[in-house]
Amino acid sequence: MDRFIIRGGKKLNGSVHTSGSKNAALPILVATLLTDEPCVLHRVPNLRDVRTTLKILEYLGKKIEYRDNTVTVTADGVLKNNLPYELVKQMRASFWVAGPLLARFKVAEIPLPGGCAIGVRPVDIHLKGFEKLGAECEMKAGNVILRAKELVPAKIVLRFPSVRATQNLLMCACLIPGETVLENVAKEPEVDDLIVFLNKMGADIRVGDKGQLIVRGKTALHGAEHAVVADRIESGSYMLAAAATRGDVTVDGCVPEHNSILIEALQEAGFTLGVTPDSVHVHAYDGDIKPVRVRTAPYPGFATDLQAPWMTLMTLCGGTAEVDEDIFENRFMHAPELVRMGAEIVTEKSVARITGVKTLCAAHVQASDLRGGMALVIAGLCAAGETEVERVYHIDRGYENLEQKLTALGADIRRYNPDK
Ligand code: EPZ
């Protein structure tokens, strides 16, 4: 298994370009199941989860061409309406195919995705929504079987603004003639980007005055071309890497508005940021990093996906900072690894208390999830000496060309596999 070897203690310097968003690209790729016409998607990051999604589309009967971050999806005969567990277990987000397959075939059989390192990750909100749309949900041998004689438009109030449930129900509702209204929905930029793509495919989705999504379903959608939105979690991670190493870095090709809470938090911590419509410059800063309390929340709140990299920055603050993780129940696995690098962190239920230290020390650590892995990489960039980060496959799920991008910013990081 690949590892990163990082010789830390160098300030990052220069500029880094943001890739297309993983979490926007994945549902948009899945949405191509709603039509047999060709779809062309640009700025699709070359990541493990994207490649898994392409395998899923191929399994279901689509033909894929993927070159230079552009994916062309065409239909290759009749689509299947089920997925094998082998594919679902590689990426739990594969449950997204339920909405489009149910909409197109009135029956879909998808293995129930299990929990993962960060939490139990149930799909009850998806299933409640499908039931409102006229489907019956049956559990059999670990699979969810969705069946409907006829799908009907409905008003659905989500118990919680789940990102993937919002996307799944939206995709399904697009092919149900009549008006479906989704309330208490997720407002993440990745949901907006899916809406833009679906509307390009001929869907009619608009945002109501109370933020509800109003879908006027169609009998068919057509092919479309789209460039995926910039990855706000990647851009935010590089801002945090710049700040933690006391570097001077411009993150370009991003949408600063999507990182506005992070930008405010960094300013509160003492950093000066220069913001243009598509870039953020984190200026070099040698003063004390002020402790800042953050609480993760659905967008536009502080992103749970930036909580772990943020924690690394706070390990170096002058005081005691707090992080409340209010989205996932088990998203502090990076904390004990950061402690092994000299950080002072105490976690209790959903709260982490971080007392800043002067420096982190290099250590042999292990990533247990994607964003927690990035937190360890940033810690390794700060710590003098050689840090070894194991289980890089988690990080490969979400950061395109990570070591190349960091090397271009002056970092000393390389990938190695002890088994090769
Ligand atoms: C998306 O996950 C992202 N993943 C996550 O990013 C991100 O952390 C999360 O949204 C929150 O922003 C993808 O887009 C692939 P949720 P998602 O449904 O949609 C509970 C990363 O690192 N819930 O909004 O699965 C759930 O357990 C990943 O890139 C239910 O209870 O998140 C969680 O506590 C990790 N029942 C909360 O809602 C349901 O039916 C938020 O989950 C669905 C969710």
Give a structural overview.
- A four-stranded mixed sheet has the order 21-22-1-23.
- It folds into two domains: 3-18 and 230-416, UDP-n-acetylglucosamine1-carboxyvinyl-transferase, Chain (Alpha-beta prism); 22-227, UDP-n-acetylglucosamine1-carboxyvinyl-transferase, Chain (Alpha-beta prism).
- Strand 7 (136-140) and strand 8 form a beta hairpin.
- The termini are close together.
- The protein is 30% helix and 25% strand.
- With 420 residues, it is α+β, with helices and mostly antiparallel strands.
- The protein has 14 helices and 23 strands.
- Bound molecules: ligand EPZ.
- Ligand EPZ binds next to helix 1, helix 5, helix 6 and helix 12.
- Residues 23, 26, 93, 119, 121-126, 160, 162-165, 186, 188, 190, 304-305, 327-328, 370-371, 398 line the site of ligand EPZ.
SSE order and pairing:
Blueprint: E1 3-8, E2 13-17, H1 22-31, E3 39-42, H2 48-60, E4 62-67, E5 70-75, H3 85-88, H4 98-105, E6 107-111, H5 124-132, E7 136-140, E8 143-147, E9 155-157, H6 163-173, E10 178-183, H7 189-200, E11 205-207, E12 213-217, E13 225-227, H8 232-244, E14 248-252, H9 260-268, E15 273-276, E16 279-282, E17 294-295, H10 307-314, E18 320-324, H11 334-340, E19 344-348, E20 351-355, E21 364-366, H12 370-382, E22 385-390, H13 393-396, H14 402-408, E23 412-416
Parallel strand pairs: 2-14, 3-13, 9-10, 17-18, 21-22
Antiparallel strand pairs: 1-22, 1-23, 3-5, 4-5, 6-8, 7-8, 10-12, 11-12, 14-16, 15-16, 18-20, 19-20
The structure holds ligand EPZ.
